[in-house]
């Protein structure tokens, strides 16, 4: 959606008086150049620019007028940059002052004063800081000593003594945040230290309990965790060495016992006896190994007797197996003769059965042919019905495939042929629509980087409350028309902010401005605290559409003009909204301005709104 919002270009401080503008056509080239040079010499570069431009209208190719105009534009740019540098030092000074970083703040204020030495606000801020620094210098040594001692005690984890020193520093400079921050940090570190001590003691107790249960792995784990908290604790280090030694002995014993128990379970009693004896060499007098050894001698004797009986049984089994094999061979010979006679009988019966089966097969084949034709017709109707159902559900690809299946039963089926032609037409239309959608997606994707850049710039300017530039960036993003509502929403949000924060609505109804006739509006000066965030908003309609022309907006106070800017009135016949960040001009910020004046050059314009607002 296109927005009727345009943006004025800032051209600096002053504009020509209305009488001079009305008489511009009568002035000679030489007179205009003299006026321009006079204004240039007095640093009124905006007025000089206007005179040089008028001189160029009379002599479009004049090299001297072009040269002077170029020099003037450079001066205007330099003034703009000078103001930006001033505001950067002013903002930095205010930020450092708010953080009680007085020396750095004073340095920034001095840099700002080097640009505009007579600025009252910055001068007052610098003087206040000098007073603070003078007061601080008398107490600084004691303060520094207390802070340094507190820091040293904090490193030694002597928290109570450190807090006492920071309290002394706080008493010296009650408004200084550093001692308060250090006290809070000391209390936090003390709390952390106490928690570490508590966790360390708990881990040591758990390690002792685990060692009593011979859970040396668990004890070692707890001791390592304790040493992570206090790596140099000698008690934990000694206990860890003891646990590691006990674990090594216990692991060796357990490994041998495990092997011995496994051998015992598998009834390898002689090998088990050797392992249990090895275990006793690791843990002398161990009750479990001694008990197991007392069980093994009778088991070994029993095992030897059972082995002798097994050998005798194997010999008897071999004899009986030989006798059984002889009997099996005799039985096989008798069975072979009976099987041959039975096979001859079965062959005769099989031949008779084959002849009967062939006759039955011929009958069934005739019946199958008739059934196949009936089945074919049924398949045609079933397939057509399924295809029509898919077509009704707009499943065209599946429906076409189903109609094509009919040709397997009836090649050239008229119904299927007609429906397939209809589906091909539908699919061609769908393909064309999808192609158009694809081309739109590609257009959007091609524009996406440009859109994102405009949005990024808009968000950046919005975050810094530079709303005129933000709206300009959002409007450019909106004009790309990629279907996103975000830029429109942000423009509406900015318009609402400006409307909600309006300071003065200078006209109550629309009026017509006659060409080159000034219209002035007066108001009480804006509070200095909000001047830098001020905007001027105008709504105007070109009464001679099809032609663009400038409108000069000037501002000033009781002492005269202080600045201004130029708006390019749109050639459209629609009412347009113009937003200009007047707070960006130093003279608006530094002076008590109480009037704004409009002059439409050469053509009439209808103005429906003149408003002063702020960004917050």
Radius of gyration: 52 Å
Q: Tell me, what's the shape? A: flat
According to DSSP, the number of beta strands is 11
**Continuous helix count:** 17
Q: Which whole number gives the mean pLDDT?
A: 86
* Low-confidence parts: 7-26
* Helix/strand order: EEHHHHHHHHHHHHHHHHEEEEEEEHEE
The CATH topology of the domain at 1-37 and 501-616 turns out to be Jelly Rolls
Oligomer: single chain
**Beta-strand percentage?**
5-15%
CATH homologous superfamily label of the domain at 1-37 and 501-616: C-terminal carbohydrate-binding module
Name the structural class. Answer: alpha+beta
Give the helix level as a range of percent: 55-70%
Terminal CA distance reads: 27 Å
Q: Which CATH class of the domain at 1-37 and 501-616 is shown? A: Mainly Beta
CATH architecture annotation of the domain at 1-37 and 501-616 = Sandwich
Could you describe the largest sheet, including whether it forms a barrel? 6 strands, mixed
Features:
flat; Jelly Rolls; 616 residues; six-stranded mixed sheet
Summarize the structure.
The protein is α+β, with helices and mostly antiparallel strands and 616 residues long. The chain contains 17 helices and 11 strands. The chain has helices spanning 18-22, 29-41, 45-58, 63-98, 102-115, 120-155, 159-172, 177-212, 216-229, 234-265, 269-282, 287-392, 396-406, 414-463, 467-479, 486-500, 586-590, and strands spanning 5-7, 9-12, 504-505, 511-513, 519-522, 534-542, 549-557, 560-569, 576-580, 595-600, 605-614.
């Amino acid at each position: 959606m296109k927005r009727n919002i345009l943006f004025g270009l800032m051209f600096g401080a002053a504009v020509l008086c209305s009488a001079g503008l009305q008489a511009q056509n009568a002035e000679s080239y030489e007179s205009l150049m003299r006026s321009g040079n006079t204004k240039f010499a007095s640093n009124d570069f905006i007025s000089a620019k206007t005179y040089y431009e008028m001189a160029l209208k009379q002599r479009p190719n004049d090299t001297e007028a072009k040269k002077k105009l170029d020099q003037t534009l450079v001066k205007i740019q330099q003034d703009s940059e000078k103001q930006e540098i001033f505001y950067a030092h002013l903002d930095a000074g205010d930020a450092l002052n708010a953080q009680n970083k007085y020396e750095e703040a004073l340095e920034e204020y001095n840099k700002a004063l080097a640009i505009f030495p007579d600025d009252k606000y910055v001068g007052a801020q610098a003087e206040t800081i000098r007073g603070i620094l003078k007061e601080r210098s008398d107490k600084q040594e004691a303060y520094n000593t207390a802070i340094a001692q507190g820091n040293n005690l904090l490193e030694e984890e002597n928290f109570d003594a450190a807090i006492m020193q920071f309290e002394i520093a706080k008493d010296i400079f009650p408004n200084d945040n550093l001692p308060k921050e250090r006290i809070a940090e000391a209390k936090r570190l003390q709390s952390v230290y106490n928690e570490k001590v508590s966790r360390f003691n708990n881990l040591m107790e758990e390690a002792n309990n685990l060692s009593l249960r011979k859970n040396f792995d668990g004890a070692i784990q707890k001791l390592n965790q304790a040493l992570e908290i206090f790596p140099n604790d000698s008690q934990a280090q000694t206990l860890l060495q003891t646990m590691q030694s006990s674990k090594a002995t216990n692991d060796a014993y357990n490994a041998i016992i495990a092997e011995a128990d496994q051998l015992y379970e598998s009834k390898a009693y002689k090998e088990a006896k050797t392992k249990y004896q090895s275990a006793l060499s690791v843990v002398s007098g161990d009750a479990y190994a001694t008990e197991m050894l007392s069980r093994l001698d009778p088991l070994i004797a029993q095992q030897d007797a059972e082995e002798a009986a097994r050998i005798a049984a194997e010999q008897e089994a071999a004899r009986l197996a030989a006798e059984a094999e002889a009997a099996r061979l005799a039985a096989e010979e008798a069975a072979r003769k009976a099987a041959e006679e039975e096979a001859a009988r079965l062959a005769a019966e099989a031949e008779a059965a084959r002849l009967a089966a062939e006759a039955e097969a011929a009958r069934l084949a005739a019946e199958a042919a008739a059934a196949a034709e009936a089945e074919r017709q049924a398949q045609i109707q079933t397939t057509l019905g399924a295809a029509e159902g898919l077509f009704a559900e707009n499943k065209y690809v599946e429906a076409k495939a189903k109609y094509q299946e009919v040709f397997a039963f009836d090649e050239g089926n008229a119904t299927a042929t007609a429906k397939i032609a209809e589906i091909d037409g539908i699919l061609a239309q769908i393909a064309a629509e999808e192609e158009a959608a694809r081309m739109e997606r590609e257009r959007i994707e091609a524009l996406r980087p440009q859109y994102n850049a405009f949005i990024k710039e808009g968000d950046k300017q919005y975050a810094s409350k530079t709303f005129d530039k933000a709206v300009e960036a959002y409007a450019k993003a909106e004009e790309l028309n990629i279907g996103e509502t975000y830029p429109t929403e942000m423009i509406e949000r900015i318009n609402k902010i400006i409307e909600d924060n309006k300071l003065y609505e200078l006209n109550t109804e629309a009026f017509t401005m006659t060409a080159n006739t000034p219209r002035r509006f007066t108001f009480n000066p804006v509070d200095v605290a909000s001047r830098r965030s001020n905007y001027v908003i105008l709504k105007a309609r070109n009464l001679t559409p099809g032609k663009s022309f400038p409108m000069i907006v000037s501002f000033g106070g009781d002492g005269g003009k202080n600045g201004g800017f130029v708006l390019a009135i749109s050639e459209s016949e629609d009412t347009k909204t113009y937003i200009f960040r007047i707070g960006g001009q130093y003279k608006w910020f530094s002076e008590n301005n109480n009037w704004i004046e409009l002059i439409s050059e050469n053509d009439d314009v209808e103005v429906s709104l003149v408003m002063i607002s702020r960004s917050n």
